[in-house]
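Following up on my earlier thread - several people asked me to post the actual chain instead of describing it. Fair enough. Here it is, all 137 residues.
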Amino acid sequence: MKKELSGAELVSFIKPRQLKAVRGLRQAHGIQPKLAIVIANDDPVIDTYVRLKQAYAEDITAEVEVYRVAQEMVPELFDEIKKDDSIQGVILQLPLSNLAWLHAAPGGRRDGPTLARAAVRRRARRQTVHFRRRRSR
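Reply from S.P.:
Thanks for posting it. Predicted structure:
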């Protein structure tokens, strides 16, 4: 039996568990989870998505820090973020207009840009998937 996936149901299932996990990190290990969101595009629609992520993080009592940089500066920013022990996660907010910087990491370091490149590839694959419509009986 197939069941349709409801976004509201999914959120009501996941959010309490994430809130509990954040509380557990704080109580057991003294860790205050913090997320860095990197924006390298001036599209105003992105601000809406970022606000939604900030509101969700607030709901689960996690901190969010937003960084706005030029795309060329993203690899250097990733290096700085990796040195900051208070940050546990990073989101590179898509879309990006120029992906050339993803292919050449400065100083031969491939970790941060490689993660971003993988995310871009996954997104590109999702965009090329074609779904067949169900035929009405």
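Residues 105-120, 122-137 have pLDDT under 50 and may be disordered. That should answer part of your original question.
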